[in-house]
# Entry
Amino acid sequence: MSFSGVSPVRSCLLMLFIHMSAPVEAKTVPGAPARTRRARLQPPGGAESIPLDLTPVKAKADDFLAQLENLAQSLYTCSSHKLDEDMRLQFLKNDSVTCNDGSPAGYYIRESKSSKRWLLLLEGGWYCFSKHSCDYRMKTTRALMSSSPWPQTRKGTGILSPKPEENPYWWNANMVFLPYCSSDLWSGTKPKTEDSGYAFMGSLIIKEVVNELLSKGLDKAKVLLLAGISAGGVGVLVNVDRVEEQLRSQGHQGVQVRGLSDSGWILQTEQYKQGDCTHVLSCGPNDMVKIGFRYWGAAVPEVCRQSYIGAEWNCFFGPIIYPTIKSPTFVVRWLFDQAQMTISNVDMTGGVITEGQWNYMHSIGQETKTTVQHALAVFAPACLAHELITRTYWMSVQVGGTSLPKALHCWERSLQDKNGSGGNHGNYNQTNNRTRPVRSCPLHLVDHCLWLNCNPTCPDIYDQPTGREMNAIQFLKQMGLKELKISKRQG
Ligand SMILES: *[C@@H]1O[C@H](CO)[C@@H](O)[C@H](O)[C@H]1NC(C)=O
Ligand SMILES: *[C@@H]1O[C@H](CO)[C@@H](O)[C@H](O)[C@H]1NC(C)=O
Ligand SMILES: *[C@@H]1O[C@H](CO)[C@@H](O)[C@H](O)[C@H]1NC(C)=O
Ligand SMILES: *[C@@H]1O[C@H](CO)[C@@H](O)[C@H](O)[C@H]1NC(C)=O
# Structure
């Protein structure tokens, strides 16, 4: 694909050239020249160099061999991307910042010394908001509350992948994956106490990870992209400005902080069917955040909090918090988000979907569309799905012919063009100027059609009862919708 105009193979060749020339330069003029040269050779837009060891080779007889060996290694890397793909687990040094059960929180990291881009990705996975729901969560999904079952390494997929063919956007960035073990939409500030039994420290975990990454090179970063999926997508909205403030207050204002929120744009809409909050999955959005806000000791950003004194829980909702966010933030949201349907009690597991449910789902689609319309940078396909950026197929979904990695690239370019570097980068009023199209490089992508999976690039719908993946037509048939004159609703 011709994304950013440089194919992976070509960018690999560019890097090889740099690799071969750098040691020579380093010998004659140590330091800076290699750097300027690299900057000039860097492919435009997304792609960066692959991590290479640029330390000068000893001026000995084995120079040539060593260079050959490096070269071979790079070639191997370029052709098969077999470089160390795994992200490695690192527990936080500050052991007072913990998961729900008091075990140390941590992160997975794959460093990329040649890159000044840092991607911090917040994992998702619902939440719990009572002793009862948290006890149940502990029994069923312990890794979401405790670090003790975590593996030593993890592979990155989608936007976390180190392969250019899977991740043309940021494949060479420093990748940091933050496992979700605070069950609090990444908002909590409460240590474990005797009576509560659980800690909720999501917001402090992010803060501490950022702190500890500073000594690993984050202090010299150009861009920190705080991304998150699902509950982590909410975490981005609630934390991105705080991260920016944290870096600025420590004198790192050179680092541009940006947000990427995937499937974290929750609507406050009335449920389809009123559910009670003894169960997490049937508790409606308003009740859920009201209960959670107190239970987690949640911290929401000051600007939003000030506007909602006494009802601060409103600041968990995308349409409310987004206009108050200063850091440039990209919103990814399926028009028919499956988690939104779940908490609205649109029960699709019965095998049949009623006309009432169908209409409700479309009203959700319409409301999503209306509320994301004012976001400056948005990707909103008309699909029934949940989460996108860490899917291996994230490149294949398109809105108006543009994929998300491309749109992210356009977004990045638009931020560069504005030359927003320095303290107050990209602090535009995101509710005012919703579209400022860069020619042929769009970053405001909302599907026009508005019925379930009218976008031909939608991923298949995952059917829970059968565990089968289906395309939209199969799905609708299964749901008994043949009679519902689907075509009538296409407009
Ligand atoms: C550890 O984290 C806690 C909570 O954020 C903080 O209050 C404390 O100062 C940190 N300790 C160190 C040594 O940084
Ligand atoms: C953005 O502009 C709109 C319309 O002028 C205004 O109502 C809103 O308060 C502004 N938002 C921010 C965060 O300044
Ligand atoms: C961009 O910003 C830098 C400093 O932040 C400044 O030196 C440079 O002149 C600016 N460039 C343009 C084109 O405005
Ligand atoms: C929107 O952007 C245009 C061009 O950048 C600018 O002239 C205009 O003042 C902006 N509108 C508002 C309301 O800020």
